[in-house]
Design brief:
single chain; mainly beta; 6-stranded antiparallel beta barrel; 12 strands
Amino acid sequence: MEIKPIATIKNDFTSKFAIPRQSGLAHITSEIIFEKEYADENALRGLEEFSHIWLIWGFSENIREQHALTVRPPRLGGNVRMGVFATRSPFRPNNLGLSCVKIEEIKKGKIIVSGADLMNGTPIYDIKPYIPYSDAHPEASGGFTDKTEFHTLKVKADETVIKSLGEKWTVLKTVLENDPRPAYQNDSERVYGFSFSHREIKFKVVGDTLTVLEIGDE
């Protein structure tokens, strides 16, 4: 089977570092830009009646010729191996991802969504509506994720840093609160950095507090 992208996502994450580990964790606004042959409004007819959609997409930055049968999930501290099909690791045999996002607005040739955990430029291979009666299972068990504590940080930043980002600070703060570091790293002296909205974000973490050190241009 050969598949090709129907769209590409556009947002403020230009690198893999700090992208939320799951969809819905941060109110990140993204645009799904359709390829020309799928930009016809007829392809989206009726979608306005749904609130959420599933995105089937490609881990375009994690291409490997060989894949291990076990991986180390961040939720387990990066120290425990689990079967690849028992995780949502990006290192998969077919490099396909699945995310549920909220529809904010539908325009000609694009869908504006929130809650995506995708990097800018990620290819979208298919879109399906989220159907509550069949897709929601409140009684479902979450495997090892039920047994691990969801870790969040306190975020500190200078007022000038906050003002420099304007409305994007709210989104960035949520990303930082969810601890963007690799789960197995806890070095209080290390300065971490990543790209967000064409800015270079640098920070340190001591204990349960993350301090933004600098925000500069890329």
